[in-house]
Amino acid sequence: MKKIITTTKAPAPIGPYSQAILTGNTLYTSGQIAINPETGALVLDDITTEAKQVMQNLKAVLDEAGMTFENVIKTTIFLSDMNNFAEVNAVYGSYFNEATAPARETVAVLTLPKSVNVEISVIAVK
């Protein structure tokens, strides 16, 4: 059975999808981009600020499901420009304990929704 996870502390979906789905003990989040959930505005000042907003949005979804970044077992990072990898990786790394960090892939894509620079999704387990 699946449970839809929704929080106002992360951006509302901009299409026919849920912020996250919890099935059993496993949470699958949709990709998060740098939308400020309070204003609905994109946060694109610089790649570091953008990545922080993405991670804060993921944190809000995890919180709503009763989880933390310690529960994350897999992440996917989409970048519109691989030259932003170091900055995004630094922000991303600040949310995880390196010794217990999840599996991950990072891929470069041609474009992302709303022409953002980074999108991240996670899978977490209680």
From TrEMBL:
It comes from the Bacteria. NCBIfam families: Rid family detoxifying hydrolase. Coiled coil: none annotated. GO terms for molecular function: deaminase activity. One of its GO terms (cellular component) is cytosol. This is DfrA. The lineage of its organism: Bacteria, Pseudomonadati, Bacteroidota, Flavobacteriia, Flavobacteriales. PANTHER family: 2-IMINOBUTANOATE/2-IMINOPROPANOATE DEAMINASE RIDA, PROTEIN HMF1-RELATED. Belongs to the RutC family. Pfam families: Ribonuc_L-PSP (PF01042).
